[in-house]
Amino acid sequence: MRTGIIGTKVGNTSYYNEDGSSIPVTLIRVDDCFVTGIKTKEKNGYFAVQLASIDKNSKNKKINKAQKKLFSSLDIVPKKIIKEFRVLEKNLLEIGTSINVSHFEKQQKVDVTGISIGKGFAGSMKRHNF
């Protein structure tokens, strides 16, 4: 298992093969992800890499002291999303390492998970924005 990356959905489009067949694809914008922590079997009971991505709004003052200390020690801008990915021991990365799309190989299969925003039972004005 290799570590994942954090991205945001931009939209959908189509990709055309050499034979002219169309494949629906989802476009994802991936900012640089930084390794902010490592979990080891001896200390935590499992191996994992903690990644941070997507810069926080500079006007947002709600950054707690622990996160301020973490990001200042790594000399990076505070990030909005911090996620943990379980990995094998041989795939652990050094703290402060930057990961981007080049982390993946061509034709590599990936698993994608996402979060949808639930709106409950909505009226037509809320559901269709008119």
Descriptive report:
15% of the residues lie in helices and 32% in strands. The protein has helices at 41-44, 65-74, 124-128; strands at 8-16, 22-29, 33-39, 48-55, 79-86, 98-99. The longest helix has 10 residues, at 65-74.
What Rg, in angstroms, do the CA atoms define? 19 Å
Count all strands and give the number: 6
Amino-to-carboxy terminus distance = 46 Å
Low-confidence stretches: none
How much of the sequence is in beta strands?
Answer: 25-35%
Overall, the morphology is globular
| Class computed from helices, strands and strand pairing | alpha+beta
Brief sketch in words of this structure:
It is built from 3 helices and 6 strands.
Structural descriptors:
alpha+beta; 3 helices; four-stranded antiparallel β-sheet; single chain; 6 strands; two-stranded antiparallel sheet; 130 residues; globular
Map the helices and strands:
Elements: E1 8-16, E2 22-29, E3 33-39, H1 41-44, E4 48-55, H2 65-74, E5 79-86, E6 98-99, H3 124-128
Antiparallel strand pairs: 1-2, 3-4, 3-6, 4-5
